[in-house]
Amino acid sequence: MATGTQSLNALLQRTTIDDHEEILKACNASLKQSKKESNILHTKAVALLKLDRYEDALRALEDGGEAVKSGASLERSYAL
């Protein structure tokens, strides 16, 4: 069985750079299997930023805890 990160990586390889809704759906599906996967939460936050959903992006970064927040300081600043 593939992990959430492997499934997300496989989907991202098939999508275009502008397919942010699809990436967001894939992140949400992957997070059902692995709720605290930092790579998935970071990817979700970036997709939300690209969709101009700044509060949701901040929430995704907060859900990841310090590991995600420290690795996504630019994204967090952009969302503020």
Spans where pLDDT lies below 50 across 5 or more residues: none
The largest β sheet comes out as: none
What order do the SSEs take from the amino end to the carboxyl end, as H and E? HHHHHH
Number of strands: 0
End-to-end CA span: 37 Å
Categorize the overall geometry: globular
Please tell me how large the radius of gyration is: 12 Å
Annotation field: number of helices: 6
Secondary-structure-derived class: mainly alpha
Helix content: over 70%
Summarize the structure.
With 80 residues, the protein is mainly α.
Topology (elements, then pairings):
Blueprint: H1 4-14, H2 20-33, H3 38-50, H4 54-63, H5 65-71, H6 73-79
Helix pairs in contact: 1-2, 2-3, 3-4, 4-6
Which terms would index this structure?
single chain, 80 residues, mainly alpha, 6 helices
Please tell me about this protein's structure.
- With 80 residues, the protein is mostly helical.
- Helix content is 78%, strand content 0%.
- It has helices at residues 4-14, 20-33, 38-50, 54-63, 65-71, 73-79.
- Helix 4 (54-63) runs antiparallel to helix 6 (73-79).
- It starts with a helix and ends with a helix.
- The model has no long low-confidence stretch (mean pLDDT 83).
